[in-house]
Design brief:
- The complex is a heterodimer of chains A (about 120) and B (about 110).
- By secondary structure, chain A is mainly beta.
- Chain A has strands at about 5, 10-15, 20-25, 30-35, 45-50, 55, 65-70, 75-80, 90-95, 105, 110-115.
- Chain A is globular.
- The relative contact order of chain A is 0.33.
- Chain B has strands at about 5, 10-15, 20, 25, 30-40, 45-50, 55-60, 65-70, 75-80, 85-95, 100, 105-110.
- Chain B is globular and about 40 Å long.
- The chains are: A mainly beta (about 120), B mainly beta (about 110).
- The interface between A and B is medium-sized, with 24 and 25 residues.
Chain lengths: ~120, ~110
């Protein structure tokens, strides 16, 4: 068990560019979550998958954001036409739903800076 | 909708002193409650969780928390803090399918 991996750890981009983040969950986990965290705030829910199905999206996830989990394993979060307000830490978490309690294990996060 | 309030944005304590971080939640049903810790530039690490049963739960690193339904609270405590406990602490409630976090409390330790 290598935990939840996120890549890249840091990304600096110019406004208007597209960025993509990758998350590799714990292999036996069937749920995968994306959260966003801005400075001085708690994580805010963006979306989650159960296996390959995206089951819920927050209103925070504008149409510039898209997330996929094509084979029910790793997931990508893409932000198109980035804005300065997108600067944040993007956290991925995974869990095993359906076996006892739903405990989320988080990755180290991907920090995005939009110039 | 569920929500979490952490009234203290920043707390400073001396090394060796006791600690209590406050957390109040709003949730219609029996809550599942969590405390996570985040060191600078890192992800969140689970300290402890409450699902049912004994209202005093023990966690890692010597932390404990007490669930009080009548007060809608889930306060985190530690009898004696260490310099390595300096971090951001988040309380969370599990609502429908996802965790909802509080704003966090930043803990500073004075030597």
């Amino acid at each position: 068990d290598t935990g939840v991996s996120q890549d890249p750890r840091h990304k600096i981009t110019k406004r208007g560019q597209n960025v993509t983040f990758r998350c590799d969950p714990i292999s036996e986990h069937n749920r995968l979550y994306w959260y966003r965290q801005t400075l001085g705030q708690g994580p805010e829910f963006l979306t989650y998958f159960q296996n390959e199905a995206q089951l819920e999206k927050s209103r925070l996830l504008s149409d510039r954001f898209s997330a996929e989990r094509p084979k029910g394993s790793f997931s990508t979060l893409e932000i198109q036409r980035t804005e300065q307000g997108d600067s944040a830490m993007y956290l991925c978490a995974s869990s095993l739903w359906g076996v006892g309690a739903n405990v989320l294990t988080f990755g180290a996060g991907s920090r995005l800076t939009v110039l | 909708a569920q929500s979490v309030t952490q009234p203290d944005i920043h707390i400073t304590v001396s090394e060796g002193a006791s600690l209590e971080l406050r957390c109040n939640y709003s949730y219609g049903a029996t809550p599942y409650l969590f405390w996570y810790v985040q060191s600078p530039g890192q992800g969140l690490q689970l300290l402890l969780k409450y699902f049912s049963g004994d209202t005093l739960v023990q966690g890692i690193k010597g932390f404990e928390a007490e669930f009080k339904r009548s007060q809608s609270s889930f306060n985190l405590r530690k009898p004696s803090v260490h310099w390595s406990d300096a971090a951001e602490y988040f309380c969370a409630v599990q609502g429908a399918q996802k965790l909802v976090f509080g704003q966090g409390t930043r803990l500073t330790i004075n030597p």
